[in-house]
Amino acid sequence: MKKSSMKATALRSMLIFILVVMFALIGGGYYFGRQWLNSYATTVGTTVAQSQNSNNDVAEGQRLQAEIANQQQTITKVNQLFSDPSTYQTQVVNDVTNYTTALGLKTPDFSFGTAGTTTTGSATPAATAGSSNTVTVTLDTPIDYTTFLKLVRDIEQNLPKMQISGLNLTRNDNQTIGSDALTIEVFTK
Asked: What residues have CB less than 8 Å from 105, skipping those under 6 apart?
């Protein structure tokens, strides 16, 4: 076997070359590792920010849901203020008939809108949509003054909202009044 001999200068040159290659590999690894780490940190930062925004959105949604739940009674009352345009006539007939019956009065006659169709105790099927509709209610007179005031109060406090927009009264003897008709404005959606 032959022994290989290496001279000191060749060994030194080879060691220097190995050291230079190692430093180059360490420097390149450090550079690319740092670039990858910066990119990964940016991705993580973006994900964290989106997560915080999502948490804020969820918290805001939960807060709004709780607020709606707290205001549900108000929402229900507001929805009751207006009649449905397709059923307001039946609603008016039922409500006013109930009020007059409770006060011991005869069932009134109803006339809806501008058509002037009169029905006794029932509504005409066609409804006029809009913000308000008029109903003319003809009562059997004479009526006790106090009973008439109770009827007016009941109509004004009705839900869905009705309001008396016109009435003609005549004064009779013995605390009674006569009325040609009540004009009621019914508010619809």
From this structure: 139, 140, 143, 147, 151
